Amino acid sequence: MGTDTCGYFDHDADIGIIGRGDTLEHAFEGAAQAMFAIMIDIAALRPEITVRFTFEESDVELALVSWLNLLLAHAREQQTVFSHFGLRREGNRWHGEASGQRWQRDMERGVEVKGATLTMLAVEQTPAGWEARCIVDV
């Protein structure tokens, strides 16, 4: 009989983000700012490029993950980093907008975010307003 064992190890591949706002949409915009702030100093970015997109999702928690992952997909596709966000909801249809600038080598780079996950996903209205949170994979 062998001495096989199994175990676990710590891995720092996740960061929790939170967006807060007086509306659901503002909380989602705050979550987007938190996510991109992991990657770059968003205060130093200029809104030179704007992307617009629409998606459908009835579940507000899944809409948060969709919103964040769509932003990451657009950023990768266009080699852009975003700093300004806008979101509008009409029933199950969400209209998103993000502005930023093309990635440049001299930009100080933080940690790359690979995607938003369902881990610790929560979107709720609190006495102080809306809060949107999830874990992003880095």
Quick summary of this structure?
By secondary structure, this protein is α+β, with helices and mostly antiparallel strands. Helix content is 25%, strand content 38%. It has one domain: Archease, Possible Chaperone, Chain: A, domain 1.
What report would you give on this structure?
The chain has 138 residues and is α+β, with helices and mostly antiparallel strands. It has one domain (14-137): Archease, Possible Chaperone, Chain: A, domain 1 (3-Layer(bab) Sandwich). Helices cover 25% and strands 38% of the residues. It is built from 2 helices and 7 strands. It has helices at 24-39, 60-78; strands at residues 14-21, 49-56, 80-90, 93-102, 115-116, 122-126, 129-137. Strands 1, 5, 6 and 7 form a 4-stranded antiparallel beta sheet that branches. The chain has a 3-stranded antiparallel beta sheet with strand order 2-4-3. The longest helix is centred in the middle third of the chain and has 19 residues, at 60-78. The termini are far apart. The model has no long low-confidence stretch (mean pLDDT 92).
